[in-house]
Amino acid sequence: MTNTATETRSVVVEREIPYPPEKIWRALTQPHLIEEWLMKNNFKPVVDHRFNLSADWGGVDCQVQTVEPNKTLSYTWDTKDLESVVTWTLTATSTGTHLRMEQTGFRSDQQPYYRGATVGWPRFLAALEEVLARMD
Which part of the chain is the Activator of Hsp90 ATPase homologue 1/2-like C-terminal domain (predicted)? Predict the structure, then answer.
């Protein structure tokens, strides 16, 4: 028997990106670059570092969970009553990098958050790709 009150959903967005993991890692971990594709922030790629993401609609409280340079980055993503985790996974390929973003923790009563993430993350990743194209 499953308890539907505790079941959660995830949003996954995957992309093949024609840049090496090291370049993508910079865009995922350098505050001035994060601001270009995601939100204003005070991020540091240090486990347990607490940081905030802010936009005109409000903000997100986060804490770094995992840092494996050029491979994996995860952090909590808490806003209002949503407590979730965002995990980035970078896998080198023959043509660049397979980038996978997964946000976990959407409860069944959090459909607006889930729908927002389903629409929002592909847009954020498109903006990330634009930033990568401009980077040295």
Answer: 19-132
* Cα 48 to the center of its chain, rounded Å: 16
Distance CA 71, CA 136 (A): 20
**Percent of the chain at pLDDT exceeding 90:** 91
β-strand partners of 10 = 104
Instruction: Write out the two tokens for 50.
Output: 């607490």
Please tell me whether residue 94 adopts helix, strand or coil conformation.
coil
Question: Which single residue is written with the structure tokens 């990330």?
Answer: 128
**Mean pLDDT calculated for residue range 96-119:** 96
Classify residue 56 as exposed, middle or buried by CB count within 10 Å of its CB (0-12, 13-18, 19+).
exposed
4 or 79, which is more confident: 79
Q: What mean pLDDT do residues 9-34 have? A: 98
Neighbouring residues of 81: CB distance < 8 A, sequence distance ≥ 6? 110
Spatial separation of the C-alpha atoms in residues 108 and 2, rounded to whole Å: 13
Alpha-carbon span 12 to 102, nearest angstrom: 4
Q: Judge contact between 76 and 62, C-beta under 8 A.
A: yes
